[in-house]
Protein backbone atom coordinates (compact mmCIF):
# COMPACT_ATOMS: atom_id res chain seq x y z
CA UNK A 1 0.00 0.00 0.00
CA UNK A 2 2.91 2.37 0.64
CA UNK A 3 3.41 2.90 -3.10
CA UNK A 4 -0.24 3.72 -3.78
CA UNK A 5 -1.31 7.35 -3.96
CA UNK A 6 -4.80 6.84 -5.41
CA UNK A 7 -7.49 4.19 -5.48
CA UNK A 8 -7.04 1.68 -8.29
CA UNK A 9 -9.56 -0.83 -9.63
CA UNK A 10 -7.59 -3.59 -7.89
CA UNK A 11 -8.55 -2.08 -4.52
CA UNK A 12 -12.05 -3.44 -5.00
CA UNK A 13 -11.25 -6.65 -6.85
CA UNK A 14 -11.14 -9.00 -3.86
CA UNK A 15 -7.44 -9.90 -4.12
CA UNK A 16 -4.37 -9.01 -2.11
CA UNK A 17 -4.51 -5.32 -3.05
CA UNK A 18 -8.03 -5.08 -1.66
CA UNK A 19 -7.03 -7.01 1.46
CA UNK A 20 -4.14 -4.61 2.00
CA UNK A 21 -6.52 -1.64 1.70
CA UNK A 22 -8.82 -3.19 4.30
CA UNK A 23 -5.97 -4.06 6.70
CA UNK A 24 -3.82 -0.96 6.38
CA UNK A 25 -6.40 1.79 5.78
CA UNK A 26 -9.76 0.64 7.10
CA UNK A 27 -8.93 -1.64 10.05
CA UNK A 28 -5.98 0.47 11.16
CA UNK A 29 -8.28 3.50 11.46
CA UNK A 30 -11.37 1.94 13.07
CA UNK A 31 -10.94 1.11 16.74
CA UNK A 32 -14.33 -0.25 17.83
CA UNK A 33 -15.17 -3.14 15.51
CA UNK A 34 -17.33 -5.68 17.32
CA UNK A 35 -20.70 -6.04 19.06
CA UNK A 36 -20.64 -9.81 19.31
CA UNK A 37 -18.73 -12.97 18.44
CA UNK A 38 -18.01 -11.94 14.83
CA UNK A 39 -16.89 -8.42 14.04
CA UNK A 40 -15.05 -6.38 11.44
CA UNK A 41 -11.69 -7.91 12.38
CA UNK A 42 -12.87 -11.34 11.36
CA UNK A 43 -13.68 -10.24 7.79
CA UNK A 44 -16.49 -12.79 7.53
CA UNK A 45 -19.44 -12.32 5.19
CA UNK A 46 -21.32 -10.66 8.03
CA UNK A 47 -21.12 -9.78 11.71
CA UNK A 48 -23.02 -10.67 14.88
CA UNK A 49 -24.58 -8.79 17.78
CA UNK A 50 -24.68 -10.55 21.15
CA UNK A 51 -28.38 -10.45 22.07
CA UNK A 52 -27.79 -11.62 25.66
CA UNK A 53 -25.39 -8.79 26.49
CA UNK A 54 -27.58 -6.32 24.61
CA UNK A 55 -30.58 -7.23 26.76
CA UNK A 56 -28.47 -7.21 29.92
CA UNK A 57 -27.17 -3.71 29.18
CA UNK A 58 -30.59 -2.40 28.13
CA UNK A 59 -32.89 -4.12 30.61
CA UNK A 60 -36.08 -2.28 29.67
CA UNK A 61 -35.49 -2.21 25.94
CA UNK A 62 -37.63 -4.40 23.72
CA UNK A 63 -37.56 -2.83 20.24
CA UNK A 64 -34.77 -3.22 17.70
CA UNK A 65 -34.58 -0.20 15.37
CA UNK A 66 -32.87 -0.40 11.97
CA UNK A 67 -32.15 2.45 9.56
CA UNK A 68 -30.06 2.80 6.41
CA UNK A 69 -28.91 5.72 4.30
CA UNK A 70 -26.70 6.35 1.27
CA UNK A 71 -24.55 9.47 1.18
CA UNK A 72 -23.68 11.11 -2.14
CA UNK A 73 -22.56 14.57 -1.00
CA UNK A 74 -20.43 16.60 -3.38
CA UNK A 75 -17.69 17.46 -2.67
CA UNK A 76 -16.64 14.75 -0.22
CA UNK A 77 -14.81 17.36 1.90
CA UNK A 78 -16.57 20.53 2.97
CA UNK A 79 -16.18 23.21 5.67
CA UNK A 80 -15.57 21.64 9.07
CA UNK A 81 -16.21 18.05 7.96
CA UNK A 82 -16.37 15.34 5.30
CA UNK A 83 -18.59 12.55 4.02
CA UNK A 84 -17.29 10.11 6.64
CA UNK A 85 -18.54 12.15 9.60
CA UNK A 86 -21.74 12.88 7.70
CA UNK A 87 -22.45 9.19 7.06
CA UNK A 88 -22.04 8.11 10.67
CA UNK A 89 -23.82 11.17 12.09
CA UNK A 90 -26.77 10.84 9.73
CA UNK A 91 -27.38 7.21 10.64
CA UNK A 92 -26.87 7.74 14.38
CA UNK A 93 -29.31 10.65 14.26
CA UNK A 94 -31.95 8.61 12.45
CA UNK A 95 -31.76 6.12 15.31
CA UNK A 96 -31.64 8.82 17.99
CA UNK A 97 -34.82 10.61 16.91
CA UNK A 98 -36.63 7.28 17.22
CA UNK A 99 -35.37 6.99 20.79
CA UNK A 100 -32.90 4.20 19.96
CA UNK A 101 -29.45 3.78 21.46
CA UNK A 102 -27.05 2.87 18.62
CA UNK A 103 -25.68 -0.66 18.97
CA UNK A 104 -23.75 -1.14 15.73
CA UNK A 105 -23.14 0.29 12.28
CA UNK A 106 -22.38 -1.27 8.93
CA UNK A 107 -20.63 0.57 6.13
CA UNK A 108 -20.49 0.01 2.37
CA UNK A 109 -18.23 2.23 0.28
CA UNK A 110 -18.14 2.72 -3.49
CA UNK A 111 -15.07 4.68 -4.53
CA UNK A 112 -13.98 5.79 -8.03
CA UNK A 113 -10.65 4.87 -9.54
CA UNK A 114 -8.21 7.72 -9.01
CA UNK A 115 -9.63 8.85 -5.65
CA UNK A 116 -6.70 9.97 -3.48
CA UNK A 117 -5.73 7.34 -0.93
CA UNK A 118 -4.86 9.94 1.72
CA UNK A 119 -8.35 11.40 1.37
CA UNK A 120 -9.88 7.94 1.65
CA UNK A 121 -7.95 7.30 4.85
CA UNK A 122 -9.01 10.67 6.27
CA UNK A 123 -12.65 9.77 5.63
CA UNK A 124 -12.24 6.45 7.44
CA UNK A 125 -10.63 8.22 10.41
CA UNK A 126 -13.53 10.68 10.54
CA UNK A 127 -16.02 7.82 10.56
CA UNK A 128 -14.17 6.22 13.43
CA UNK A 129 -13.93 9.43 15.47
CA UNK A 130 -17.64 10.11 15.02
CA UNK A 131 -18.62 6.55 15.93
CA UNK A 132 -16.39 6.68 19.01
CA UNK A 133 -18.11 9.90 20.09
CA UNK A 134 -21.34 7.99 20.69
CA UNK A 135 -19.73 4.65 21.55
CA UNK A 136 -21.02 2.65 18.57
CA UNK A 137 -18.85 0.06 16.78
CA UNK A 138 -18.59 -0.32 13.02
CA UNK A 139 -18.89 -4.09 12.76
CA UNK A 140 -19.00 -4.99 9.07
CA UNK A 141 -18.76 -3.43 5.65
CA UNK A 142 -17.98 -3.66 1.97
CA UNK A 143 -15.69 -1.83 -0.45
CA UNK A 144 -16.21 -1.54 -4.19
CA UNK A 145 -14.29 0.38 -6.84
CA UNK A 146 -15.61 1.68 -10.15
CA UNK A 147 -14.02 3.18 -13.26
CA UNK A 148 -13.21 6.86 -12.87
CA UNK A 149 -15.72 7.91 -15.52
CA UNK A 150 -18.49 5.89 -13.89
CA UNK A 151 -18.62 7.90 -10.67
CA UNK A 152 -17.62 11.46 -9.82
CA UNK A 153 -16.98 10.95 -6.09
CA UNK A 154 -17.09 8.49 -3.23
CA UNK A 155 -20.45 7.06 -2.07
CA UNK A 156 -20.99 5.70 1.44
CA UNK A 157 -23.93 3.65 2.68
CA UNK A 158 -24.33 3.19 6.42
CA UNK A 159 -26.87 1.01 8.20
CA UNK A 160 -27.51 1.47 11.89
CA UNK A 161 -28.96 -0.95 14.43
CA UNK A 162 -30.30 0.41 17.72
CA UNK A 163 -32.41 -0.60 20.67
CA UNK A 164 -35.21 1.44 22.23
CA UNK A 165 -37.06 1.28 25.53
CA UNK A 166 -40.00 2.87 23.75
CA UNK A 167 -39.93 3.83 20.09
CA UNK A 168 -40.59 7.52 19.37
CA UNK A 169 -42.50 8.13 16.14
CA UNK A 170 -42.56 11.31 14.08
CA UNK A 171 -46.38 11.05 13.99
CA UNK A 172 -46.95 11.37 17.74
CA UNK A 173 -47.37 15.13 18.07
CA UNK A 174 -50.51 16.28 19.94
CA UNK A 175 -52.24 19.69 20.19
CA UNK A 176 -50.58 21.73 22.92
CA UNK A 177 -47.16 20.16 22.50
CA UNK A 178 -44.28 22.61 22.34
CA UNK A 179 -41.76 22.33 19.52
CA UNK A 180 -38.07 22.59 20.34
CA UNK A 181 -35.39 23.08 17.69
CA UNK A 182 -31.99 22.08 19.04
CA UNK A 183 -29.95 24.74 17.23
CA UNK A 184 -29.50 27.16 14.36
CA UNK A 185 -30.96 26.26 10.98
CA UNK A 186 -29.37 26.18 7.53
CA UNK A 187 -25.72 25.90 8.58
CA UNK A 188 -24.96 22.73 6.61
CA UNK A 189 -26.71 23.54 3.35
CA UNK A 190 -25.52 27.13 3.09
CA UNK A 191 -21.91 26.39 4.04
CA UNK A 192 -21.79 23.56 1.51
CA UNK A 193 -23.36 25.64 -1.25
CA UNK A 194 -20.96 28.53 -0.65
CA UNK A 195 -17.98 26.18 -0.63
CA UNK A 196 -19.05 24.21 -3.70
CA UNK A 197 -19.94 27.21 -5.84
CA UNK A 198 -16.99 29.32 -4.69
CA UNK A 199 -19.10 32.12 -3.22
CA UNK A 200 -17.01 34.57 -1.24
CA UNK A 201 -19.39 35.36 1.60
CA UNK A 202 -16.57 36.67 3.84
CA UNK A 203 -17.85 34.57 6.71
CA UNK A 204 -16.83 31.50 8.68
CA UNK A 205 -19.82 29.40 7.67
CA UNK A 206 -19.28 25.71 8.54
CA UNK A 207 -21.43 22.61 8.48
CA UNK A 208 -23.27 21.60 11.64
CA UNK A 209 -22.82 17.85 11.01
CA UNK A 210 -22.76 16.01 14.34
CA UNK A 211 -24.03 12.81 16.02
CA UNK A 212 -26.83 13.78 18.43
CA UNK A 213 -27.38 10.64 20.51
CA UNK A 214 -25.48 11.83 23.60
CA UNK A 215 -27.63 14.97 23.67
CA UNK A 216 -30.97 13.33 22.93
CA UNK A 217 -30.55 10.40 25.29
CA UNK A 218 -30.68 12.74 28.30
CA UNK A 219 -34.26 13.84 27.64
CA UNK A 220 -35.83 10.56 26.50
CA UNK A 221 -36.46 9.23 30.05
CA UNK A 222 -38.50 12.28 31.13
CA UNK A 223 -42.07 11.29 32.02
CA UNK A 224 -45.30 13.14 32.67
CA UNK A 225 -47.15 12.89 36.00
CA UNK A 226 -49.25 10.13 34.43
CA UNK A 227 -46.08 8.20 33.59
CA UNK A 228 -46.22 8.74 29.83
CA UNK A 229 -43.20 9.93 27.82
CA UNK A 230 -42.82 13.71 27.82
CA UNK A 231 -41.34 13.50 24.30
CA UNK A 232 -44.16 12.86 21.83
CA UNK A 233 -42.29 13.05 18.50
CA UNK A 234 -38.84 13.77 17.03
CA UNK A 235 -37.33 14.25 13.59
CA UNK A 236 -34.04 15.46 12.14
CA UNK A 237 -34.55 18.24 9.57
CA UNK A 238 -32.15 17.12 6.86
CA UNK A 239 -33.29 17.22 3.21
CA UNK A 240 -36.20 19.66 2.97
CA UNK A 241 -34.94 21.49 6.05
CA UNK A 242 -37.13 22.57 8.94
CA UNK A 243 -40.05 23.24 6.59
CA UNK A 244 -39.99 19.69 5.27
CA UNK A 245 -39.67 18.12 8.72
CA UNK A 246 -42.49 20.15 10.31
CA UNK A 247 -44.86 19.54 7.41
CA UNK A 248 -44.25 15.82 7.52
CA UNK A 249 -44.85 15.74 11.27
CA UNK A 250 -48.03 17.79 10.95
CA UNK A 251 -49.41 15.65 8.13
CA UNK A 252 -48.65 12.37 9.88
CA UNK A 253 -50.06 13.46 13.26
CA UNK A 254 -53.08 15.30 11.87
CA UNK A 255 -52.33 18.44 13.88
CA UNK A 256 -51.56 22.00 12.90
CA UNK A 257 -48.32 23.78 13.78
CA UNK A 258 -47.64 27.43 14.48
CA UNK A 259 -44.04 28.60 14.72
CA UNK A 260 -42.74 32.03 15.69
CA UNK A 261 -40.27 33.64 13.29
CA UNK A 262 -38.77 35.72 16.10
CA UNK A 263 -37.86 32.56 18.01
CA UNK A 264 -36.13 30.73 15.15
CA UNK A 265 -32.41 30.36 15.90
CA UNK A 266 -30.47 31.34 12.80
CA UNK A 267 -26.97 32.74 12.40
CA UNK A 268 -26.73 36.19 10.88
CA UNK A 269 -24.30 34.84 8.26
CA UNK A 270 -26.81 32.18 7.17
CA UNK A 271 -29.67 34.67 7.12
CA UNK A 272 -27.64 37.13 5.03
CA UNK A 273 -26.51 34.43 2.60
CA UNK A 274 -30.08 33.16 2.16
CA UNK A 275 -31.34 36.67 1.52
CA UNK A 276 -28.62 37.31 -1.04
CA UNK A 277 -29.22 34.00 -2.83
CA UNK A 278 -33.00 34.13 -2.65
CA UNK A 279 -33.22 30.97 -0.52
CA UNK A 280 -35.67 30.30 2.31
CA UNK A 281 -33.57 29.17 5.31
CA UNK A 282 -36.48 27.03 6.48
CA UNK A 283 -35.92 24.79 3.45
CA UNK A 284 -32.15 24.39 3.86
CA UNK A 285 -30.76 21.07 5.08
CA UNK A 286 -29.29 20.56 8.53
CA UNK A 287 -27.11 17.63 9.62
CA UNK A 288 -26.74 18.27 13.35
CA UNK A 289 -30.16 19.41 14.54
CA UNK A 290 -33.34 17.78 15.80
CA UNK A 291 -36.97 18.83 16.10
CA UNK A 292 -38.35 17.66 19.45
CA UNK A 293 -42.07 17.80 20.31
CA UNK A 294 -42.64 17.77 24.07
CA UNK A 295 -45.57 18.09 26.45
CA UNK A 296 -46.02 21.75 27.41
CA UNK A 297 -45.41 21.24 31.13
CA UNK A 298 -41.96 19.73 30.41
CA UNK A 299 -40.86 22.05 27.60
CA UNK A 300 -38.64 24.30 29.71
CA UNK A 301 -37.09 21.30 31.48
CA UNK A 302 -36.24 19.62 28.19
CA UNK A 303 -34.94 22.88 26.71
CA UNK A 304 -32.68 23.44 29.71
CA UNK A 305 -31.18 19.95 29.45
CA UNK A 306 -30.64 20.25 25.69
CA UNK A 307 -28.89 23.61 26.12
CA UNK A 308 -26.39 22.03 28.52
CA UNK A 309 -24.94 19.99 25.65
CA UNK A 310 -22.45 21.41 23.17
CA UNK A 311 -24.72 20.64 20.23
CA UNK A 312 -27.78 22.18 21.85
CA UNK A 313 -26.49 25.50 23.19
CA UNK A 314 -28.61 27.47 20.69
CA UNK A 315 -31.79 25.43 21.21
CA UNK A 316 -35.11 27.26 21.38
CA UNK A 317 -38.82 26.66 21.70
CA UNK A 318 -40.04 27.76 18.29
CA UNK A 319 -43.76 27.01 18.36
CA UNK A 320 -46.51 24.58 19.26
CA UNK A 321 -48.92 22.05 17.84
CA UNK A 322 -52.56 23.10 17.58
CA UNK A 323 -55.93 21.51 16.84
CA UNK A 324 -56.54 24.15 14.17
CA UNK A 325 -55.26 24.24 10.58
CA UNK A 326 -54.99 20.47 10.52
CA UNK A 327 -51.89 19.16 8.74
CA UNK A 328 -50.67 22.69 7.98
CA UNK A 329 -47.67 24.65 9.22
CA UNK A 330 -48.01 28.40 9.75
CA UNK A 331 -45.46 30.96 10.84
CA UNK A 332 -46.17 34.16 12.71
CA UNK A 333 -43.75 36.66 11.20
CA UNK A 334 -41.85 39.33 13.07
CA UNK A 335 -44.44 41.91 11.98
CA UNK A 336 -47.32 39.82 13.31
CA UNK A 337 -48.75 38.46 10.06
CA UNK A 338 -49.26 34.76 9.39
CA UNK A 339 -47.98 32.81 6.40
CA UNK A 340 -48.03 29.17 5.40
CA UNK A 341 -44.79 27.23 5.53
CA UNK A 342 -45.12 24.80 2.65
CA UNK A 343 -43.33 21.55 1.97
CA UNK A 344 -40.42 22.24 -0.43
CA UNK A 345 -41.36 21.23 -3.96
CA UNK A 346 -37.90 20.56 -5.37
CA UNK A 347 -34.28 19.89 -4.53
CA UNK A 348 -33.13 23.31 -3.35
CA UNK A 349 -29.46 22.36 -3.03
CA UNK A 350 -28.65 18.97 -4.63
CA UNK A 351 -25.99 16.52 -3.41
CA UNK A 352 -25.90 17.88 0.15
CA UNK A 353 -25.97 14.57 2.03
UniProtKB/TrEMBL annotation:
Pfam families: AIRS, AIRS_C
One Gene Ontology term from the biological process aspect of the record: protein maturation
Annotated PurM-like C-terminal domain residues: 175-329
SUPFAM superfamilies, per the entry: PurM C-terminal domain-like, PurM N-terminal domain-like
Residue ranges of domain PurM-like N-terminal in the record: 44-164
Listed InterPro entries: HypE, PurM-like_C_dom, PurM-like_C_sf, PurM-like_N, PurM-like_N_sf
Family listed: Belongs to the HypE family.
UniProt cross-references to PANTHER family, sorted A to Z: CARBAMOYL DEHYDRATASE HYPE (PTHR30303:SF0), HYDROGENASE ISOENZYMES FORMATION PROTEIN HYPE (PTHR30303)
Entry protein name: Hydrogenase expression protein
Gene source species: Methanococcoides methylutens
Amino acid sequence: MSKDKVIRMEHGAGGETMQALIREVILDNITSRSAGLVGLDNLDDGATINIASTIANNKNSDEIVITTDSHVIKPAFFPNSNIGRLAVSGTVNDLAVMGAAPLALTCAIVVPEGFELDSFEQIIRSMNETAEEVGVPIITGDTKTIERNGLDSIIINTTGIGIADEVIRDCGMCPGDRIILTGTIGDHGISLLAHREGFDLTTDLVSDVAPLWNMIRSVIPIRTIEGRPAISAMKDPTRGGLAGALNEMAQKSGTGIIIEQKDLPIKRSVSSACEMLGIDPLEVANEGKAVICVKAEHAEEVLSIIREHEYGKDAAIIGEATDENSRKVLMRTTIGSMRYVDTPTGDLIPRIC
